[in-house]
């Protein structure tokens, strides 16, 4: 597995410097006065926020936090903490009224349950009932659902939130002549664990899209991101009862090595021996099923 070791051998200082140049040059090319990004309280947006501030200066950067009624309060607190750490004011606006107007919450009957934790228990029960309590089956089902099935409705329930966030961030950006900075990483891109046309897909610049999640954790240490955020699992936070992305996809370091090997057309037999054929083939399946999410609809 000697080639796989290259995954961890990025020059972090040079990588950060290159990203900062990309952010600044993009802003100048677009003739914007600054940048705005959604600060979720997670690691990806924290690293992107830090690099954007290093590139442009805190005075040119705007942060938005857009929670809704299913959002875990801890993420909002971590977003506030990160914004304060970087010296940037955080603007918070609930998108619950917009989602209600779009009848998003009516897609699932859990909207009738007033408490978020109880809604999560109901989703956990459904997961156990329909997926034998195996979270790793949810992503594949989401990428090939039957029309009007509960998995299709649940997917619509979740992704609409990120699409509404994208609309709100771009509205803010257009009003203030800012560019939108996205925070998706390479692991999300290749496995389809993002929302097509959502806040984690649409941006004027995606500065960490070439970096695997496991590499991003090393970048976070270099940037001295607060440990409380560094140590958080990657939480999609769009549907109660749905666990963090590592439980959905698999252990980040393993997934990234498989993805790296796929990109470089390496033999996967060693992975089959170490992690089991089903686990490896599942990552291959996610890459194939999500291919359309990475393709542009514009063909000349």
**Strand order in space, largest sheet:** 3-2-1-4
Structural class: mainly alpha
CATH level-4 homologous superfamily: HUPs
The helix tally amounts to 14
Indicate the proportion of strand residues. Answer: 5-15%
Uncertain spans? 1-6
Radius of gyration: 19 Å
Q: Kindly report the oligomeric state of this protein.
A: single chain
How many discrete domains? 1
Mean pLDDT: 88
Q: Percent of residues in helical segments? A: 40-55%
Beta strands, count: 4
CATH class: Alpha Beta
Explain this structure to me?
The protein is mainly α and 300 residues long. It has 14 helices and four strands. It has helices at 12-30, 43-56, 73-86, 96-101, 116-131, 138-143, 150-176, 186-191, 213-222, 227-230, 245-249, 252-263, 269-275, 277-289, and strands spanning 34-38, 61-65, 90-92, 178-180. A four-stranded parallel β-sheet has the order 3-2-1-4, with helices on both faces. α1 packs across α2 (43-56), α2 packs parallel to α3 and α13 crosses α14. It is globular. The relative contact order is 0.16. Residues 1-6 have low confidence and may be disordered.
Outline:
It comes from marine sediment metagenome. This protein has a single domain (2-294), classed as Rossmann fold.
Defining key terms:
single chain; globular; 14 helices; four-stranded parallel beta sheet; Rossmann fold; disordered N terminus; 300 residues; mainly alpha
List the helices and strands and how they pair.
Layout: H1 12-30, E1 34-38, H2 43-56, E2 61-65, H3 73-86, E3 90-92, H4 96-101, H5 116-131, H6 138-143, H7 150-176, E4 178-180, H8 186-191, H9 213-222, H10 227-230, H11 245-249, H12 252-263, H13 269-275, H14 277-289
Parallel strand pairs: 1-2, 1-4, 2-3
């Amino acid at each position: 597995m000697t080639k796989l070791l290259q995954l961890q051998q990025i020059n972090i200082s040079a990588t950060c410097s290159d990203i900062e140049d990309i952010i600044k040059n993009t802003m100048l090319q677009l003739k914007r006065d600054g940048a705005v990004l959604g600060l979720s309280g997670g690691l990806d947006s924290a690293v992107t926020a830090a690099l954007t501030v290093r590139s442009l200066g805190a005075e040119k950067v705007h942060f938005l936090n857009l929670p809704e009624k299913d959002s875990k309060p801890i993420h909002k607190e971590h977003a506030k903490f990160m914004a304060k750490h970087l010296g940037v004011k955080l603007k918070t606006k609930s998108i619950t009224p917009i989602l209600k107007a779009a009848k998003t919450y009516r897609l699932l009957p859990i909207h009738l349950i007033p408490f978020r934790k109880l809604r999560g228990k109901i989703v956990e029960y459904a997961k156990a009932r329909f997926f034998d309590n195996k979270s790793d089956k949810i992503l594949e089902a989401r990428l090939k659902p039957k029309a009007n099935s509960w998995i299709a409705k649940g997917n619509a329930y979740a992704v609409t939130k990120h699409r509404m966030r994208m609309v709100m961030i771009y509205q803010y950006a257009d009003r203030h002549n800012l560019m939108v900075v996205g925070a998706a990483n390479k692991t999300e891109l290749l496995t389809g664990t993002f929302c097509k046309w959502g806040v984690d897909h649409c941006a004027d610049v995606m500065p960490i899209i070439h970096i695997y999640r496991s590499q991003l954790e090393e970048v976070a240490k270099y940037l001295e991101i607060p440990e409380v955020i560094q140590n958080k699992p990657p939480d999609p936070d769009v549907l109660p009862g749905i666990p963090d992305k590592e439980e959905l996809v698999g252990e980040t370091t393993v997934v990234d090595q498989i993805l790296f090997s796929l990109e470089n057309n390496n033999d996967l037999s060693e992975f089959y021996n170490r992690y089991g054929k089903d686990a490896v083939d599942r990552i291959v399946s996610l890459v194939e099923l999500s291919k359309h999410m990475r393709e542009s609809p514009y063909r000349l």
